[in-house]
Every structure is written in structure tokens, then in C-alpha cells.
Design brief:
The structure holds two protein chains of two kinds. Chain A is an alpha/beta fold. Chain A has eight helices and nine strands. Chain A folds into two domains: 190 residues, Rossmann fold; 34 residues, no CATH class. In chain A, helix 1 packs across helix 8. By secondary structure, chain B is of the alpha/beta class. Chain B has two domains: 214 residues, P-loop containing nucleotide triphosphate hydrolases (Rossmann fold, 3-Layer(aba) Sandwich), CATH 3.40.50; 40 residues. Helices cover 34% and strands 18% of the residues of chain B. Chain B has eight helices and nine strands. In chain B, helix 3 packs across helix 4 and helix 4 crosses helix 5. Chain B is globular, with a radius of gyration of 19 Å. The relative contact order of chain B is 0.17. Classes of the chains: A alpha/beta, B alpha/beta. Adenosine-5'-triphosphate (ATP) binds next to helix 1 of chain B.
Chain lengths: 233, 258
């Protein structure tokens, strides 16, 4: 099974470019299946169903969507297998900016919206810095100069990624992306590892504490002045 | 060296093959792109900017010197063959004019001295002066446009220049075109303005998303274009007078010698 993991901020155009790329893959004759991981709500399954691709939705609710995606990789691969798919595409809302769901042998794709401003690549963290491919969308809405600066900023964060400038409306650039999907390698979960370890964050807030006063908090606590401590046993 | 580009026709909005199967533009030529609003003018030059390879909805293919350009040639801004002034009227980037121009100069491998030259040129095209300390996003439509023109002319110094609707936003269009269309370049100008359209060598006529025909500018039209320039000059001087709060009491039509 080939596995492509697509991460990107909400509304960045992940589904739009995937629809074009997967239509291309359909034409080549490779069967694909899509899992959409989101937090609270998504209607992406309806969009993928329109192009006749088997789709499954997972809602992580109050859990980090990337953690949720990682815990469920095996189920997703089994489900894709049942649907006779040779390519599994996982679209995930990269909301937490500290996690990245990419595994070593999957193809890691980060979709990033060019209208979000040239500082965005510096802010989004590991889902860009550990990606194999950065897809820049909505370039049609800004000047060529801004596009070029955006591109340079992405390379500052991830000098080794391949950049694809794509348009989710016209489909331009999506054939290039489909090509990369086709080139990606087979993944077997047995020895598969994450590229980026999940972040340091184990505290009482993580397990549901709602009181804000410091005296209620235990675990790894970092102060705004940079001082960090471990409170507890 | 880029000697020519070739546009291989694709399909219009209805999926019919474009009547123009092939159009070639040579070094030193200025091509116009004309047609009603929504007829696909911007999409056509967008295809050229991306050096599309049947990967947009028009399915056009663009050749450079008769050959398919490499992926590197299509995407690396340092090697970029195309400079484009798009139809966008405003900047979205959250930085100052100076920072923006320095970054762009760095991307394009241009000298940092360019920054001052761009601001100077922009200020010859627009009304209220632009300063390096200004935030990009507070510039007016006309100021943004003037800065985009100057940036394309000086920093994005590419052999192919694409210009989308120079006439909007009230900047000095003749000066802007002169700054953009340097010698020995391949230039395409999208326009609704007959003065600009008749200044070109040939024009592509768009309809329904497809290239309908390529019309050569006739000798008669070239002569007409001189006259139109005079009318345009009159309009421009009137515009400046009105802008400066003057009262107009007469127009000297006789001086036009039509
Ligand atoms: N102008 C423009 N709009 C685009 C482009 N790509 C996507 N869009 C629009 O952006 C909006 C969001 O696109 P989606 O594909 O739903 O984004 P997403 O990343 O899948 O969003 P979530 O799944 O909700 O996180 C839609 O209205 C698209 O039509 C593009 O290249 N240019
Ligand atoms: N060959 C084509 N096939 C399908 N759709 C097309 C084609 N060409 C253009 N379109 C669509 O038509 C719409 C209008 O095109 P475009 O913006 O290029 O028009 P325009 O001539 O530049 O208009 P304006 O004068 O208002 O700027 C766009 O949404 C574009 O996606
Ligand atoms: Mg989506
Ligand atoms: Mg247009
Ligand atoms: Zn997380
Ligand atoms: Zn916590």
C-alpha cells in the first residue's frame, strides 16, 4: 500500500487539490481511498464521493487530530485494503502546529495557502519542516512577487522539500502532485516510525483540568520567561 | 536566450477546440490580448506565466524556442523566464515596502540597490508618493499598482513580460508600458483600451475562454494609434488638472489636428 499523508491548515485547499490529483490517478488506473481526519466537523467525504473515491471520516474531537491519525493508521490501512485500494490518502487538519503526522516511508505533503502571508511558513512548524512536498495554493490571488517571496520562505524552513504551486480551482499543478503520489513507496506499518516525535506536553490540562490558577497544575510546566519545571511525583 | 514562445491552443469554456491552434510570439514583439470581460484573457496569460503543459483547464501547452521547458525553468524564480503584472490591485503581505522589495530582490538574485530605484520609478507613475517605511497593505489601489509595475520592471527582469490591464487604477499607462516593455523582450498586454491595443504589433482576440483569432495591427491602425495618443494626452492633462483642483473652462480640440 502506498500511503500519502496530507496536512495543512483549515481551508488551505487540501481537498481541492486532492480532488484534481486523484482524478488524474484514477485515469492512470490506480485505485485510491481517502480518510479525512478532522476535529469537529467535515463535509469533505461528500466532495470525494462525487468523484467516486471510497472515503472514511474520523473526528478526533478533543484530541489532537495528528495523534488521533497516528493511533488509527492500522485501521485506516486495513479499511483501504478492504476497498481494494493501492493508494491510501489521509487528509488531516494540521491544527496543533507542534505535531506532524508524517511517517518515515509515507509521502508527506503539506498544503499551504499563499494568501496567509509570507510569515506563515515560519509559523506552521513540523508539518512543513518535515514534509517531502509543499503545495502552495491560491497563488492566483496575490502578485507574482509575493508568490516568489512565499516560496523562498518555505525553502528557509524546509530546504529539501519539493515545491508545487497548485491551483485548487483550475487544477493547475495537480498533475505534478499526482506524479509524486505515483512515485511514493510501499509502506508496511510493522517497523514504521514517525519523522517528528510528538511534542513535550504532559500536564494536568492535557487530562482535563479546567481551573486556571497555577496551584492546580502538575506536570511539565513552562513559564513565559522560559523557566521550565516539573511539578509532581 | 529566448527567441520565441509558442502557444499551442487547447479548449474553450464549452470544451470546443480553440480556433487558434498555434500562436508564435518573437523577441521584440508586443502582443495585445483583447476580448470582453470574462472571455479568458487573464487565464491565457496565466497559462503563459506558468508555462502550462496541458495542466490547466484550457489544456494549452507553451513552448519556449520550440521546446517544452524543463521543470526547473518553469519553477525556479532565479531562472524564471516570465515577469507578470497580474490583475490584482492590492498586496496581502504584511510587511513594509522596503522589506518586501529587499526580499523580492533576494529571491530574484537582484542587487539590493534596486530597492530605491523601484520606489523612485513607482513614484513617477502614481500621485501621492510611496515611502519605504509604508506598510504594503495600506497602499491605495493606484499606489500598489505603481509599485507592482516598478517591481516587475526593475527586479523581475525577465525576457518574457506579461501585463494585465495596465490602464486601471489611474496610473500613467504610457510611462508604465515603456518601463515594462524593455528592448528585445517578448511582451503581452491584456487590455480593454484601444489606445494600448493599437500600440501593439498583433492582438489575440478572446471569446468564451478561447483564442478566436490573431489580428495584425494594420498601417492604418498604426496611424490611428498616433491620433489616439494625442486624444489620450489631452485626457491625461485634463485628468491632472481636475485632480489638482483646477477649473476647466475649455478644451483645445483644434490642437489635436485629427
Ligand atoms: N482562489 C483559489 N481558491 C482556492 C484554491 N484552492 C482552494 N481554493 C478554495 O479554498 C476553499 C477551501 O478549500 P478546501 O479544499 O475545502 O480546503 P481544505 O484544506 O480541504 O479545508 P478543510 O478540509 O476544511 O481543512 C474552497 O472554497 C476552495 O474553492 C486556489 O488555488 N485558488
Ligand atoms: N479555456 C477555458 N476553459 C474553461 N474555463 C475558462 C477558460 N478560460 C477562462 N475560463 C474561466 O473563465 C473565467 C473568466 O476568465 P478570465 O478571468 O481570464 O477573464 P478576463 O478576460 O481576464 O476578464 P476581465 O476582463 O474581467 O479581467 C475564469 O473563471 C476562468 O476560470
Ligand atoms: Mg478538506
Ligand atoms: Mg482579467
Ligand atoms: Zn498535536
Ligand atoms: Zn498539557
Amino acid at each position: 500500500m502506498k500511503m500519502v499523508i496530507v496536512a495543512g491548515t483549515p481551508g488551505s485547499g487540501k481537498t481541492a487539490v486532492l480532488i484534481h490529483a486523484l482524478q488524474n490517478i484514477n485515469e492512470i488506473g490506480l485505485k485510491s481511498a481517502v480518510v479525512k481526519i478532522d476535529c469537529l466537523y467535515t463535509d469533505d467525504d461528500r466532495k470525494f464521493a462525487k468523484i467516486n473515491i471510497p472515503t472514511k471520516v474520523g473526528l478526533s474531537m478533543d484530541m489532537c487530530p495528528d495523534h488521533y491519525a497516528i493511533y488509527n493508521l492500522e485501521e485506516m490501512i486495513n479499511w483501504a485494503d478492504e476497498n481494494q485500494a493501492e493508494l491510501l490518502v489521509i487528509e488531516t487538519a494540521g491544527l496543533c502546529h507542534r505535531c506532524a503526522p508524517f511517517t518515515e516511508n509515507s509521502l508527506g505533503v503539506c498544503v499551504i495557502d499563499a494568501t496567509s502571508g509570507p510569515n506563515t511558513p515560519l509559523k506552521v512548524g513540523p508539518f512543513l519542516s518535515t514534509a517531502d512536498i509543499a503545495v502552495i495554493t491560491k497563488g492566483d490571488m496575490i502578485s507574482q512577487a509575493e508568490r516568489e517571496i512565499f516560496r523562498e520562505r518555505i525553502l528557509e524552513v524546509n530546504p529539501n522539500c519539493k515545491i508545487i504551486e497548485a491551483n485548487g480551482l483550475s487544477g493547475q499543478g495537480c498533475a505534478e502532485l499526482a506524479d509524486e503520489f505515483m512515485k511514493s513507496q510501499e509502506v508496511s506499518l510493522d517497523q514504521e516510525k514517525l519523522r517528528h516525535s510528538a511534542p513535550l506536553a504532559v500536564c494536568t490540562l492535557c487530562v482535563g483540568e479546567t481551573k486556571v490558577n497555577k496551584k492546580y497544575h502538575r506536570g511539565i510546566l513552562r513559564r513565559i520567561d522560559g523557566f521550565q519545571s516539573y511539578e509532581g511525583e | 536566450m529566448i527567441e520565441e514562445i509558442t502557444i499551442i491552443g487547447g479548449f474553450d469554456k464549452l470544451g470546443n477546440p480553440e480556433p487558434v491552434k498555434k500562436a508564435m510570439i518573437k523577441k521584440g514583439e508586443i502582443f495585445g490580448v483583447v476580448g470582453p470581460t470574462g472571455s479568458g484573457k487573464s487565464s491565457l496569460i496565466g497559462d503563459i506565466e506558468q508555462l502550462s503543459q496541458e495542466d490547466t483547464f484550457s489544456k494549452r501547452k507553451i513552448l519556449v524556442n520550440g521546446k517544452t521547458p524543463s521543470y526547473e525553468d518553469r519553477t525556479n524564480p532565479r531562472k524564471k523566464m516570465v515577469a507578470q503584472l497580474s490583475q490584482n490591485m492590492n498586496f496581502l503581505a504584511d510587511m513594509t515596502v522596503g522589506e518586501f522589495l529587499s526580499l523580492h530582490a533576494k529571491c530574484r538574485g537582484a542587487h539590493s540597490k534596486c530597492v530605491n530605484a523601484v520606489v523612485e520609478l513607482a513614484n513617477t507613475l502614481t500621485g501621492e508618493p510611496i515611502k519605504k517605511e509604508h506598510d504594503l497593505t495600506i497602499l491605495s489601489g493606484g499606489q500598489s499598482r505603481a509599485l507592482m509595475v516598478a517591481d516587475v520592471a526593475i527586479i523581475s527582469n525577465s525576457p518574457i513580460v506579461l501585463i494585465d490591464e495596465l490602464e486601471n487604477a489611474g496610473i500613467r499607462k504610457h510611462d508604465a508600458l515603456e518601463a515594462l516593455a524593455g528592448h528585445g523582450k517578448i511582451v503581452m498586454v491584456v487590455t480593454h483600451d484601444p489606445v494600448l491595443a493599437l500600440m501593439t504589433d498583433k492582438r489575440i482576440v478572446m471569446k468564451n475562454g478561447g483564442m478566436q483569432s490573431v489580428v495584425g495591427t494594420t498601417e492604418k491602425e498604426k496611424a490611428l494609434s498616433q491620433k489616439l495618443n494625442k486624444i489620450d494626452g489631452l485626457m491625461l492633462s485634463l485628468r491632472d488638472q481636475v485632480r489638482n483642483g483646477e477649473v476647466i473652462d475649455d478644451i483645445e480640440l483644434k490642437n489635436l489636428e485629427l
